[in-house]
Amino acid sequence: MPDFLTSVVYTSTSFLLGVILVNQIVDFDLLYVNPMPANAVSNAFTYYQTWWDAPVGVKALLHLAAFAPIGSLIIKLNAWTESAIFFDGSALALEIATVILYLTVHIPSLRTFLPPSVKDHTKWNFLPASPPPEVPYSITDKTDAVRVLAAGNALVAMCLIGVIGMQAGQEWARRTEEREQRLMDEKAEREAERIKKDL
User: Which of 65, 137, 140, 188 is the most buried (most CB within 10 A)?
Assistant: First the structure.
């Protein structure tokens, strides 16, 4: 069971990391190119509008990939061993940080620079609708929002890499412990055989 749960964490986290990598198509120009290309913001608006208007199935898959590792890590943490507390607990904290970034950075940023979705997904939306702004957002507000979203993607990528690192570290620690235990057992067996021969 722990191997299956670890596989769920690896698969879901790697999938989300791949999505963030694809987002770098537009995020790179927004964050790392100075001066920013003239079409970088409009390209980002178009790109993220595609995600925002994606079918419900696509959004459901992304949310499943975000929440499946959290459930798996909670179950793994139930073992309450030193390894689970350190590695799974740290990975769980990073996964929760990813969800917090999504809810506090990504959703508000998308709502700032994108027009309302042309498709009616309100019956599937678990988040309350944002109140309309008192003053319409200016292009500067929208540009800042899309750049904040790009920076949020970079932070999410770091969290996800940390999750994968924690799970890989747990496996390395388990194998190291098993190898050391095997060496100690072999040494004890040799010592027992030597004592028998001396008798």
Answer: 65
Q: Which residue has the tokens 């904040």?
A: 148
Residues 153-186: pLDDT tens digits?
999 999 999 999 999 999 999 999 999 999 998 8
- CA–CA separation, 23 vs 150, rounded Å? 8
* 169 Cβ contact partners less than 8 Å away, ≥ 6 residues apart: 87
- Please count the CA atoms within 13 angstroms of the CA of 170 that sit on its side-chain side: 27
Which sequence spans correspond to the domains of the chain? Answer: 2-129+136-198
Alpha carbon distance 115, 77 (integer Å): 41
Q: How far apart are CA 27 and CA 12, in angstroms?
A: 22
Residue with the two structure tokens 């790179």: 28
Asked if residues 69 and 13 have their Cβ atoms less than 8 Å apart, the reply is: yes
**Rounded Cα gap, residues 186 and 190, in angstroms:** 6
Predicted model pTM: 0.85
